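ingest -> validate -> predict -> emit
validate: passed (alphabet ok, no gaps, 202 aa)
predict: started
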Amino acid sequence: MNQRNDIIFLFENKLIDKIARSFSPSEIVKSLSFLNGLRFAYWLLYNDKWEEKLQEFAIKLLYEIREVYPEEWNSSWEYDALLGGACNITCKYDERYEAYKRAFNKAANPPPGLLIEFARCCICPGSPSISYDQAIELILKALKQAPYADGIGLLSHIYSLKNDNMNEEYWSNILKESNQQLVSPSIEPKFLVEEYLRDLNK
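emit:
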């Protein structure tokens, strides 16, 4: 079998470790379709053992997909949001901000989850990429749609970083009284989330 067929065979059998060990991101992306490349990156990102090397490989893969399939990538803000989430998992804070910023700018009406995750970029080592006040504004916009616990918790945390004890306490109390199960809807591509959950339930 040639290289492309090898990769497709391994992909269809979900031998993700073997693909990541044997081929470069460029070879993989050129052998798989845009959607299958995203599927593979997602499997790596949420691998069973939460292996950091595989998660790092997933990010390289996502950047390669963005390079090879620019038209498909730019067709939806969700793909940059996926990259932002991957960078968040691997603590690549500057790259997280850049990816979420691109997603935010692409979205005609940014959903609550994107507003909250973009706001979260103010929490990072060193100088924050987004100011605390900008982050608060984004979260309050998200909370106009529903009292999302992840947004309320983040607000409380940001106020603690600002040493604003009154607002920190206020939002902490709101969080205690709120429905902890009500979190903002996922901003990852829906088909990836659905397939992942389906596989988990098998």
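The chain has a mean pLDDT of 96.
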